[in-house]
Structure formats: structure tokens, C-alpha cells
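Troubleshooting log. The previous structure file for this entry was overwritten by mistake, so regenerating from the original sequence record. Sequence copied from the archived sheet and checked twice against the printout by T.R.
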Amino acid sequence: MRSRYTMAVLGALMSLGVVATLSMAAGPTQYQWTGTVTEVDPKAKTMSVDKGGESWEFSTAELKNVTVKKGAKVTVYYVAVAKKIESK
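Regenerated output below.
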């Protein structure tokens, strides 16, 4: 009886360890920004979205078939990516 209990506890701990490892390796946190499209520039592959007077510009270079038009309400899902870090 004790060995079944021990095996069950060990199995549960191993499963918990696997889940914890996978969640840490999931990658960067995804954020979202919902607002109204104020500008779309297909040549520069950018789009500006206004949310309550604050406007953010997003790159659409990695996206296929972006068919959003000015004035549309959208939710942009993004991750923050550092391009350069300078020590001060």
C-alpha cells in the first residue's frame, strides 16, 4: 500500500515539475492594445492605434494580409521586444 502511495506522490511531483518548466519556457508575455486605427501605412508597414488620446504605432511587417482601414476599432496583440540596450 505504501509503495502505491509513494509512486502516486512521485508521479504528481514530476507532473508538477513538467508543468512548471513548460510555463517558464512559454516565451515573453503577450499584451493587448484596443483602440481606433488612426493611420495605416502599407509602404512602411506600420499602423497607429489611438486609445483615449494616447496613440501607439505598431509594425505590421510580420503580419500577412492586414486589411485594417482607418477608423476601424481593433485589438492589437503584441510582445515587447528590445532592439538595443545601452548602459548609462
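The radius of gyration is 22 Å. Archived copy saved in two places this time.
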